[in-house]
Amino acid sequence: MTNVSILGSTGSIGENALDVIRASGGALRAVALCAGSNAEGLARQVREFRPALAAIADSGREDSLRRELEGLPVRIVSGEEGVLEAATLEEADTVLSAIVGAAGILPAYHALGEGKDLALANKETLVAAGELIMERARRTGRRVLPVDSEHSALFQALHGRSREEVRTLTLTASGGPFHADLTLDLWDITPADALRHPNWSMGEKVTIDSATLMNKGLEVIEARWLFDVDLDRVQVLVHPQSLVHGIVEFVDGSMLAHLSQPDMRIPIASALYFPARPALPWKRLDLGEAGKLEFVPPDLERFPALNLARSAQAAGGGKPAVLNAANEVAVEAFLSGRIRFPEIVSVTEQVLDSFAAIPGPLTVEKVLAVDARARERATEVIDVM
After folding, report:
1. Which of its termini does the chain have fewer beta carbons within 10 Å around, N or C?
2. What is the secondary structure of 317-349 as a DSSP string?
3. 134 neighbors 225 (Cβ within 8 angstroms)
4. 256 and 170 in contact (C-beta within 8 Å)?
């Protein structure tokens, strides 16, 4: 049995992870569940899965959670300290980090430090602090298991392969709801438009990132750290069907592609069961039914976020942390109607241009400090638009 702590249990990834645990027949057990502010949703999960620990990041919701769970044998904690307790719980073998944004950095870092395998759905952790996280994993001998469908696909295709055999890694992108419509004026896009992803059911932030292609830029950086490859060996293709999730090209010219239904339970199960492959009850992919599979290069002029992310990673010195923080603030501003769709990337670019690279080796403290300053700067930029 594998004991799992889920950080972000009431979000899309968390709910899917619990579905995997539900179908595991006892092979997986949730020993800690952690939510942001959804006390009612967390209480519902605790009543079903009976973990040892329930954590809620919003301390103001702790009393509500205690009322919901009165009489149940569960320890309840809150705030940043509570999240870290869930990430380092002694009984946990694997920590699934599905916290949105840079808030996932410290829990991931501490989970590895306490000897936990890290099933990582929070790409921002590696974008902002990839060098630190992967070094932490190497020092402690623990595994970072990707949960993003694209990185899970590459991870599976690379398993047992020498890195010297690999020429390129290709991440696929659906293109979001707008990439194929060249007549669409991007300035007219509303939050409701951008949240209509054609293939995946995801949280708001990642869905907007998918629409701008920033999601794929963040994933390029994530792949650089996960697979220890140069940035120019990580490529992106738009694949509207979202059935091929990743492609490895080998030095002999052959390729391995990973295909599955666009169902996040599949990569979650791959991470939680690794290296085993359990029989899963989800809908299987029927290639005859799927029909044609299309691949086209991304339109980098209309969607400049991908190149912006590459530039930030190439610059180093904390610039990826700036990129991530500014983008998070800009996405929130778009969702609340304070800026328009193309301004998400322009705000991020302005903030990046205003920051110099951090000298010397990065530390977690430096990354968190630059993250905070970049958020402040992004807010200032938005306030004068």
Report:
1. N
2. TTHHHHHHHHHHHHHHHHHTTSS-TTHHHHHHH
3. yes
4. no
Chain centroid to Cα 131, Å, comes to: 16
Residues 6+ apart with CB under 8 A from 285: 243, 259, 260, 261
| Residue found by looking up tokens 């190497």 in the block | 138
pTM above 0.85? yes
pLDDT at position 377 is 97
The DSSP secondary-structure symbol of 9 reads T
Residue 263's alpha-carbon distances to 118, 267, 282, 360, in angstroms, are: 21, 8, 8, 42
* Nearest one of 238, 237, 262, 264 to 168, comparing CA atoms: 237
The pLDDT tens digits of the residues spanning 200-215 come to 666 788 889 989 999 9
Please compute the mean of the pLDDT values over residues 74-78 and round it to a whole number.
97
CA–CA dist 80, 183 (Å, integer): 46
Q: Is 142 helix (H, G, I), strand (E, B) or coil?
A: coil
Q: How confident is the model at residue 138 (pLDDT cuts 50, 70, 90)?
A: very high
Percent of the chain with pLDDT over 70: 98
Count of other CB atoms within 10 angstroms of residue 278:
15
Give the tens place of pLDDT for each residue, 92-118.
Answer: 999 999 998 888 999 999 999 999 999
Question: Are the CB atoms for 347 and 330 separated by under 8 Å?
Answer: yes
Q: Is 34 exposed, middle or buried (0-12, 13-18, 19+ CB in 10 A)?
A: buried
Burial 184-201 (b: 16+ CB within 10 A, else e): eebeebebeebbebbbbe
List strand residue ranges (DSSP E) for 72-198, in order: 75-78, 94-97, 117-120, 144-146, 166-173
CA distances from 348 to 327, 335, 336, 380 (A): 5, 15, 17, 12
Cβ atoms of 118 and 137 closer than 8 Å = yes
Q: For the chain, how many residues are written?
A: 385
CA–CA separation, 61 vs 238, rounded Å? 41
